[in-house]
Amino acid sequence: MTPAPLLLFAVGNPSRGDDALGPTLLDRVSASLAPEIARGEVELLADFQLQPEHALDLVGRARVVFVDACVRAAPPFEWRRLRLREEARRDTSTSSHAMSPSALLEAYRAVEPAGSTPPEAWTLAIRGERFELGEPLSPRAAAHLDAAVDDLVSRVRGEWAEGADVTGGGVVAGERVVLEGVVQGVGFRPWVHRVASALGLSGKVWNTSNGVTVDAYGPPAALRALGVALQREAPAGAVVRSVHRSPLASLPPGAHGFTVGESDASGPVAMGLPPDLATCAACLAEVASPSDRHHGYAFTSCTGCGPRLAVILALPYDRQNTTLAGFALCTACARDYATPSARRFHAQTLACPACGPRVWLADPEGVPTPAGEPVAAAAAALRDGAIVGVQGLGAFHLVCDATSSRAVAELRRRKRRETQPLAVMVADLEAALALAELDVAAREALCSPARPIVLAPSRGASIACEVRGPSLRAGVLLPYTPLHAALLAEAGRPLVFTSGNASGGPAIIDHEGALTHLSGLVDALLLHDRPIARRVEDSVVATGPRGLRVLRRSRGFAPHPVRLPRASPEPVLAVGGHQKNTACVVVGDLAYLTPHLGDLGLYEGELAWRREVEGFEALLGVRAEVLAHDLHPDYASTRYALARAARRRVGVQHHVAHALAALAEIHVREPVLAVVYDGTGWGPDGTAWGAELLAVDGARWQRVSAFRPVPLPGGERAIRDVWRAALGMLHDAFGSDEARALAERFEVFRAQTPARLDTVLRALDGGAATTRARGLGRWFDALGALVLGLSHAGFDGHVALALEEHADPRDAPPYPIDTPTRLALDGPLSAANEIDPRPTVHAVVQDLLAGAASGWVAARVHATVVEATCAVAARALAETGLRRVVLSGGALQNRLLERGLVARLGAETVVMARDVPVNDGGLALGQAWAAVLALTEPASAAVDRAAGLAREDEPAITCSST
Fold it and tell me: Considering 834, 859, 883, which residue would you say is the last residue of a domain?
């Protein structure tokens, strides 16, 4: 019997995970190619391994295809032509089995009939991942298999049926693919080059101002395979948001092979900017290897890791548009850059000791110190108790020995950071587990390319107790640059890494700033000469009841854009709030949040913020004429928005912006009930809001209920000196005389003289120098001061955090609390619509005076807030017909409140931001979305909404044109 001209030979074990790819492919194509098999044109053969006797199966064939699984193949699969005489000399097969196809070709020479022609031999290597016995195909491998089956059947019935050469001799199609998203700075072009080359395609790939464009020419099946890979197998760090395809004419004359083309900077920006990525394992291995030319080099990186946003000056992402432009590549680096098979093929930040940036140690005045190897010298100083200012990837850090109480106490004294927990960098996951209780999500976050600070319950092992201060949580992070890794290794102990700034000021990013602002805080400076393009501080995450929560969105996360539910017709700049500031630039339907920019309380912070915001706009190639801002007239960001030339301004109430941020991120299009709890936000009526329940429908909203305001004697002073808030709360609940008597019985007031207490109580009696604030954070300040005896808040949210951390973990019954007799569904809020905690205050005082444990009282306080919120929310949902509840605001970073509200309201009912902070770090996204709604609403509807959004004294979203 004459052998079929085409033999499809699959190798693999059907019972060993992805090793079943080959046999499974044959099962699939046996049906698709049934007519060809019946006509004797195709034969199928499978075995666990290739054996020498299989050489006989090659005799008389015109073509043979060996199909196997491979962990190294370019996804989804890779074709390779085997040429008998060449392969006989070397075995370069990708097969993982005992005998490779090339070795079988060698055996074929012994049985080859005289005068016969050897078969044309190919390998089809399908990308696999898992090969455990008893496991099914992995999801990725199954997707790769689908693509391989389509491609193989197409070749059998197309190019091969016609005798065409699959590698390009019979080019039949061309296609342009435009990809948008985070596709620059993540090794995308080199990856496309490898995949397209493996598929035998010709063409090129290049960066543009809106992403990456691919022109590819070749057989239709290969083009389809490329399309599958582009959408399913993009390299780590890439986020492909959209793919646009269009046909091309035939391959241009003289254009053969696949290349990386020159970037095109023309056109509008419509892409995702790449975030900075932690150094990958391969680069760290090179840094650790004495035989590698990158040994010990602090700036080693590749296409998959290293600085991105922190060094980009302009787009597209090319070396000449980064702060490494001044470092010309040496011969070895230039060779890596130009070699397709190299890991640093077209890596824009590559460098080595011969041609890249350098590190040196200096004294506090910037004078270099002749101390030998700088990292080792800095580590020695740290072991001796010194504080070192370390220039990092996106900012300076202040660093000290985390095991030394003296060093940590001195750092706190110099920085004037008395109580706020300090982050600790450790060498590896094992060391992190010794410091904190990390669940699976926390471990994954800690080791991810973003390398954030992870907040988790502290174990306290091996570090000074002064590191975390009064908090029960630890903040840990792993090294994310080779410089950090080397410093940890040389120091041989955990190190405190805290922002390199004076208290309240912006983090320093350049040498001039370090000499001006850090020289009085440090004993030495570890400097380098790779300029930092923009401030990119460490991100902070924590695990919550619904998984990982981003508390500070910066390095590793920003500036990944948030895709909005609707595109803006023109660029928008939202300037955010006053604390934890980020700004947001909208281009089309993409909202780009800046990295964390900090607080704007100091003049130098305001100046640095302005430079960062305008530089971010310039990077995106826009200068927005639509500005969105908070209503608070004294916020530096608001003043900036009102002073800057603009075609249109949109003022957005603080708590409305919190709610809209979640709606914009999660794409909730239906009306919702928003529960927004934070410290303070300016209300349209000129009072301080902060514990609000709002019915929200797009830009239209109505205030449904709110907490009764707590009196703050001394105004802003009561936010820092929380004993004042506690006294105001007692005065509100009990009256002046009883509050005076109670003050003598609680620890929190013991440090205050009778005269001072009398002065404050008189002010409360007459309302002089007293503001009233509804913020849940202010209520927690007052209650926490009373329960825990804390008189002073060392940082924003200090007392509320302490109340949360000290709460008894057992289920606790709520205290009494008055909920509204009716909701404000058709008019302004009144006392009848308020949640009144005064009964709670009476019960708390009674419990404490009776000797109840502070942890039990704290647990009951949390249960009371959950009870009251759910009662009002259930009523509001019933009376309005709303189905979803948005939770937002900084107070809802509280895990006890989140857990209780989600459990009571139902996980399917609750909407909460995932990738954007619920605190003021997400405020700008909500402002931006409000502006987009204002721009895209019909004019009449916008007027109607601006006139009746909240039916308060002033609208809470205001629009003005200039």
Answer: 883
Strand 540-544 versus strand 453-457 pairing type: parallel
User: Up-side HSE of residue 164: CA atoms within 13 Å toward CB?
Assistant: 19
Domain co-membership, 385 together with 531: yes
Are both 470 and 582 inside the same structural domain? no
Instruction: Report how far residue 809's alpha carbon sits from residue 807's, in angstroms, rounded to the nearest whole number.
Output: 6
The first and second tokens of residue 464, run together, are: 């000074």
Residue type, 403: T
Q: Say if residue 419 is exposed, middle or buried (CB neighbours under 10 Å; 0-12, 13-18, 19+).
A: middle
Cβ–Cβ < 8 Å for 604, 622: no
pTM, 2 dp? 0.80
Q: Which of 654, 825, 812, 798 is nearest to 722 (CA)?
A: 798
Tell me the one-letter amino acid at 790. Answer: L
Rounded-to-integer distance, Cα 174 and Cα 273, Å: 29
34 within a domain of the structure (yes/no): yes
- What DSSP letter does each residue of 143-158 carry, written as one string? HHHHHHHHHHHHHHHT
Tell me the torsion sign for CA atoms 492, 496, 502, 506.
Answer: positive
* Residue keyed to tokens 């009939």: 113
Residue whose entry in the numeric block shows the structure tokens 């569904």: 825
Mean pLDDT by runs of 10 across the 962 residues of the chain is: 83 90 93 86 89 82 90 84 52 52 78 67 90 86 90 82 45 81 85 87 86 88 83 79 83 76 71 86 95 97 94 89 96 92 90 97 94 92 98 98 96 92 96 93 94 92 86 94 97 97 89 95 98 97 86 94 93 96 94 95 91 94 95 96 96 96 94 94 90 92 94 93 96 95 94 93 89 93 96 91 94 96 83 94 97 97 98 94 95 95 93 94 98 80 34 48 54
Tell me phi and psi for residue 538, to 5 degrees.
-70, 140
| 234 within domain boundaries | yes
**922 and 878 together in one domain:** no
Residues 210 and 280 in one domain: no
Q: Which helix (H) or strand (E) holds 788?
A: helix 776-788
Sorted by sequence, the CB contacts under 8 Å of residue 324 that are 6+ apart come out as 311, 348, 349, 351, 356, 357, 530
Residues 6+ apart with CB under 8 A from 373: none
Whether 480 and 348 map to the same domain: the answer is no
Q: Where does 438-583 show beta strands of DSSP type E?
A: 453-457, 473-477, 495-499, 524-528, 540-544, 547-552, 562-563, 572-574
Query: How far apart (Å, rounded) are the C-alpha atoms in residues 597 and 661?
Result: 18
Q: Cα-flanking dihedrals φ and ψ of residue 646, to 5°?
A: -155, 150
CA angle 482, 484, 486 (to 5 degrees): 65
